[in-house]
Amino acid sequence: MTELIIFDLDGTLLDTVADLANSTNFALCKCGFPAHEIATYRFFIGNGINKLFERVLPEGEKTEENILKVRSYFLDYYGKHNAEFTTPYDGILELLQRLQTAGLKMAVASNKYQQATEKLILNFFPEIKFIAVLGQRENIPTKPDPTIVEDILSIAGVERSNSLYIGDSGVDMQTAQNAGIEAIGVTWGFRLRTELEAFSPKYIVNNPYEIITLLSI
User: By the 8 A CB rule, do 14 and 83 touch?
Assistant: First the structure.
């Protein structure tokens, strides 16, 4: 019986790609590097911001020094502009409300840095009572390492057999596998259906209403 639902954030609950792209492009330009088209960021996002910066930097410029330089400009800009174009996906708020009404525990497990993860959840879902909102934290490995899921399971006091992970990428599906819990892949996010299929999640859904049906809530 499902008692706990763990959600990825970017590409699953929120469409954050435009604000992430604009903020990263701002930082790149401040550092003298070329910007990228917004659409391409769908494939850059997903493994934390340092990996994002490594991916967008030109070949031969992917140094730790440049990553940290881009990061410094990004953090200040994104902190002020992270909700200009970001929106919940259609049906997400209703899904969360239905889960809450049904008494299921909910949590967020993101590779977005902790401060921004907390800020966006509070901004867009203030009425939803998540039992844990965890992002990328210092000295904690990022997904697909299962540590973040293990931490949530401990906080929730729920067995992994009664837990479900929902995400939009191969990283999410691999995280669920590594943590030993079942997964639902969603096709409305940043990655292609074929990427999800490669990890054989229990379900792949095309909209949040399918999850309501699957869970009979």
Answer: no
4-15+87-215 with 17-81: one CATH topology? no
* pTM for this entry: 0.94
For the stretch 85-115, pLDDT in tens is 999 999 999 999 999 999 999 999 999 999 9
Q: Cβ of 71: how many Cβ atoms within 10 Å?
A: 17
What is the full DSSP assignment across 169-195?
A: SHHHHHHHHHHT-EEEEESSSSS-HHH
- What top-level class would CATH report for the domain 4-15+87-215? alpha beta
Distance CA 52, CA 36 (A): 12
Task: Kindly report the length of the chain.
Answer: 217
Class (C level, CATH) for 17-81: mainly alpha
- DSSP class of residue 142? P
Q: What is the pLDDT of residues 185-209, one digit of tens each?
A: 999 999 999 999 999 999 999 999 9
